[in-house]
Amino acid sequence: SPYGTPLAMLYVDAAEEMGYPNVDVDGESQVGFQIHRGPIRNGMRCSTGRGYIRPIRNRTNLHVAEGAFVTKINLDSTKTVTGVTFTRNGVTTTIKAKNEVILS
């Protein structure tokens, strides 16, 4: 796993030796052992802002709404996210997304 530290991988290896499966956390069954994924940089957990937002913060197509409370994730008929409705400072706003929506 690209997410595991050497110590974490020892736990997974030990679990496998005891007969527990090493599972795909996105698979059909999550019963077993696997390394939890998260924003990791240099072997340490990093914040969403540091791991995802900071590297792309100057993109013209990025909108960050701090202090916003998401009230609805808008979907189309194929259940693809098309936008987000949120409230900030008492004002409700709906925005459309062309590519991605990241909520944190």
UniProtKB/TrEMBL annotation:
Recorded hits in InterPro entries, A to Z, give: FAD/NAD-bd_sf (IPR036188), GMC_OxRdtase (IPR012132)
| GO molecular function ontology, one term from the record | oxidoreductase activity
User: Which branch of life, at top level?
Assistant: Eukaryota
Write down the SUPFAM superfamilies for this protein, in alphabetical order.
FAD/NAD(P)-binding domain
Annotated Gene3D superfamilies: FAD/NAD(P)-binding domain
Q: Which family does it belong to?
A: Belongs to the GMC oxidoreductase family.
Q: What is this protein called?
A: Choline dehydrogenase
- The scientific name of the source species is Lygus hesperus (Western plant bug)
